[in-house]
Amino acid sequence: MSATGVPAPNAEQAGRRVEEVLDRLAASGNREACDAAEELVRVLMDFYGAGLARILALLGKAQPAALERLLRDELVSGMLVLHDLHPEPTEVRINRALESLPGRPVELIAFDPDTGALRVRSADSGGCGCPSTNSAARQAVEDALACFATEVSSVQLESAAKEPTLLQISPRPASVVAS
Which residue among 31, 57, 135, 166 is least enclosed by CB atoms within 10 Å? Predict the structure, then answer.
């Protein structure tokens, strides 16, 4: 959800849609139209990228708090990542994505930038530990990362270790009389 209350377009979905349209054009056999469409996408990417870079530079100097709010917005963050302009390091963006998860929170264990593999652990021991529950949790993590950290290519979810419950049995006090 964007700051305006309207569902924000997803950068990953928009990128897939652009690819689908370009693939359809390529399949049509019209090489000239396909080349023109690819050039149009490049020109628009360069134009919007330059505009975003200027906004970052101006806003970062004048209003760092406003810039922080923008970096927390999924749409804006996704656009900055898409244009390779995001000012925060990958690990900070990963943590931001994990913090945005509702419900079942997870914690970062490790991120390997060479492989894009992210290891996270369920921060609570709730849930049944069923494969479907873990799959849903992993999907939620992947969805959150899609806007904030596209460098992540795989997510490994580890369950939180449950502490064994210790039941202590002690003798009844002598003052308690059995009935």
Answer: 166
CA distance 67 to 55: 9
Q: Give the CB-side neighbour count of residue 26, counting CA atoms within 13 A.
A: 7
Average pLDDT over residues 11-19: 83
pTM above 0.70, yes or no: no
Judge if 101 and 75 occupy the same domain. no
pLDDT value of residue 158? 85
DSSP 13-67: HHHHHHHHHHHHHHHTT-HHHHHHHHHHHHHHHHHHHHHHHHHHHHHHHH-HHHH
Per-residue pLDDT of 107-124, as tens digits, reads 889 999 999 999 998 866
Domain extent, residue 117, equals 88-162
Both 52 and 69 in one domain: the answer is yes
Cβ within 8 Å of residue 173, ≥6 positions away:
none
